[in-house]
Amino acid sequence: MEHARFHAQIFLHADDPDARPKVETAVAALLEEAAERPALRVILDGDSMPSETIAGLVAGLRRLRDRGGALAVAPASAAVGDVLALTGLDRVFALPLMPERDEPPSRRPRGGGIVRRLGAAAGALVLAATGVGASAAPERPTDPTAILERVIERNPSLGSYEGRLRVDLRMTSFPFYRTHLDGTTYYKRPANYEIVFDHVPRLARGFEKLFADVGDPSSWEKRFVISYAGEAPFRSRSDIVLHLVQRVRGMIDHETVLVDPAAWTIDSIRYDYYNGGHITMTQSFADVGGYVMVVEQTAEIAIPYASAVAHGTYSDYQTNVALDDALFRKK
């Protein structure tokens, strides 16, 4: 696949501590502007290649590839060029996307040599660690902190958002009540999440907290003791399972979270209560302006003396908007 031109170009210093967010910003802007096959060229200077810079470039490459695009790195120093060649990343961050297939035979390297073989091996390790490899799936992490970090960094350039939420609530036990709730959802990095409902009917009070409590997982490690609990089937895939227990005991005995290891989204949360009740929330996601955003939530509620089903839909997202911190103060 050939790209006629680069849609954008940036100059970076590899040792710059802000190199990763600068790449994220450039990729986000490009995804908003370029309709298809967005191509970004990064001119990279520096005396070394910190792992954080490499991670930022790989994350940007993954986002662009999802749109059929590419990210190419042009070394501006011998040090950066040597690192790229040794690790094999010079062929990853390059156009065309698949040079072994797209280059004419006369331009493909013949033989190898120990340096090239070592470089290919190092490059494979880098790709396995960052999830870019095309043919081999990366090993799934089992450390809860590492898993949550990937979930939290799913949208690395998303600083804030505002959107609308509608919840249709149906009691499946007496009094068989039906209603709906409308509200606004807010998020501001790093861990501010809030849903404000326009009006909550008396019989629906308490249910609105269910949607607000899913929130953002940035604070989970402060609130819960989290352990890896293997894998479980979800729809047509196998999800990572996390077991959460509240550090300060409340009404919930434990929570079970299913994480999609491909998209790093939270597919499901089940709350098991000490009184025998349970609530299961499942979520669906979609691309909204280049970000992976929740668009639907369904809750199945079975607690003593009451059962219900609630379905929430999100719309009218506005991303990276200015939000007043007062929105997130505890009420």
Report on the structure:
Helix 1 (19-33) packs parallel to helix 2 (51-65). The chain has helices spanning 19-33, 51-65, 78-87, 89-92, 99-102, 114-130, 144-152, 208-214, 220-223; strands spanning 8-13, 39-45, 70-75, 160-171, 178-188, 192-197, 224-234, 237-246, 252-260, 265-273, 278-288, 291-303, 306-319. Mean pLDDT is 81; it is low at 97-122 and 133-137. The strands form two sheets. The protein has a ten-stranded antiparallel β-sheet with strand order 6-5-4-13-12-11-10-9-8-7. Strands 1-2-3 form a three-stranded parallel β-sheet. It is elongated and about 75 Å long. The chain has 331 residues and is of the alpha+beta class. The protein folds into two domains: 8-139, 2-Layer Sandwich (Transcription Regulator spoIIAA); 160-328, Lipoprotein localisation LolA/LolB/LppX (outer membrane lipoprotein receptor (LolB), chain A, Clam). The protein has nine helices and 13 strands. The protein is 26% helix and 38% strand. Strand 9 and strand 10 form a beta hairpin.
